[in-house]
Amino acid sequence: LPAPHQIIEDMNKSIFGHKVTSKRSLVYHGWVTISSTLVGFGIGALLGILLAVGIVYIPTLNRSVMPWVIASQTIPILAIAPMIIVVLGAIGLTGLLPKAVISAYLCFFPVTIGMVKGLRSPDPIHLDLMKTYCANNTQTFSKLRWPASTPFLFASFKVSIAISLVGAIVGELPAGSRAGLGARLLIGSYYGQTIQIWSALISASLLAGTLVYLMTLLERLTLRNMGGRFF
């Protein structure tokens, strides 16, 4: 087990001792991983929101799709990740996209569950009030359900963005990637470089914390513009 100062020295050398375009730079590998993370998060978040809207407004989807959404998360990601990479590789899709799909697979579930809860959160009296105003479903959604679901949405986003990073790293392992934090972990394990492994792990943790913090700032800005208050 490496000493803490050895890990710090390795991280300092990997971050500041090489150009950001060098494959020895942690910044380079971090950027490769975060690219897959953000693409996967975008796909998963959009899919989760669309599924949630369908589940809330279409009873048939609630009964038929929701159980499958829950069941999808019982499959270990380490088991399904190689399958996704092989299937997409067979049709010529390699590089960033397979890793983004794995990230999306992990992150769509929290968004779906959070948005379903949020879209159903308005009080019945408020829904009845919208009916007295002769509001249609679109108006009720935009004026009541969507604003009410925003806090739930951002709570889901903060969970999903971190899970997306995990998905991107997991996707780099079976893909045999030569770049990314997952690749650094894999190479370090091959050659017994425990310091490199710990540097990549700590970098991934810091990156996840930064993404969650940025999402928190975006949440506060959005809710403040919507008239929300923070204590």
UniProtKB/TrEMBL annotation:
GO BP, sorted A to Z: transmembrane transport
Primary subcellular site in the record, as a coarse category: membrane
Residue stretches spanning the membrane: 31-58, 65-91, 152-175, 195-218
Subcellular location: Cell membrane
UniProt membrane topology term: Multi-pass membrane protein
Name of this protein: ABC transmembrane type-1 domain-containing protein
Ranges of residues in domain ABC transmembrane type-1: 26-219
Swiss-Prot/TrEMBL keywords: Cell membrane, Membrane, Transmembrane, Transmembrane helix, Transport
Cellular component annotations (GO), alphabetically ordered: plasma membrane
